[in-house]
Amino acid sequence: MSITLSFELENIDWPQIAEIFEKAPLGTRDPEKLARAAANSELVCFAKDGGEFIGFARAITDGVFQAVIYDLCILPEYQSHGLGKKIMTAMMERLESINIILFAVPDKEGFYEKLGFKPMLTAMGCFKDEEGMIERGYLEG
Questions:
Q1: Spatial CB neighbours of 89, under 8 Å, sequence gap ≥ 6
Q2: Tens-place pLDDT, residues 75-116
Q3: How far is the CA of 43 from the CAs of 110, 115, 131, in angstroms?
Q4: How far apart are CA 88 and CA 92, in angstroms?
Q5: Whole-structure pTM value
């Protein structure tokens, strides 16, 4: 296994990235929308094993006070081998010492706590797809 991380948006196979979301499983993502979201993000990270994309994450930030990490996803066969930690550590280093928040997939909060994340008491959201958020376990029904 020769896993590398890249932080560039060049030569990305967006259908393959969308497939990672489905296999992870984190739902279905349209490859064109994923590409647009990544282009509008301050930071992206792609994990590759040889020539195959195996993981992805992105972040938006104001560069001064706050950042949000989104979409950490890894192919199942690469999960639980330290790749998520490697991606998150690289992202957090590049975001420097600003506050970072994220959505944790239900039952994965412990992973983020090991990286220093703490549950928030007052976070709120206004969601376009509230039913989808309930289905994925982010909101109570």
A1: 115
A2: 999 999 999 999 999 999 999 878 999 988 888 999 999 999
A3: 24, 18, 29
A4: 6
A5: 0.91
Residues 108 and 74: beta-carbon distance below 8 Å:
no
Q: Which residues of 35-65 are buried (b: 16+ CB within 10 A; e: fewer)?
A: bebbeebebbbbbebeeebbbbbbbebeeee
Q: At what angle do helices 31-39 and 14-23 cross, to 10 degrees?
A: 100
pLDDT tens digits, one per residue of 120-141: 988 888 888 888 888 877 788 8
For residue 50, what is the DSSP state?
T
CA distance 60 to 67: 6
CA 104-109-113 angle, 5° bins: 115
Cβ burial of 5 (10 Å; 0-12, 13-18, 19+) is: middle
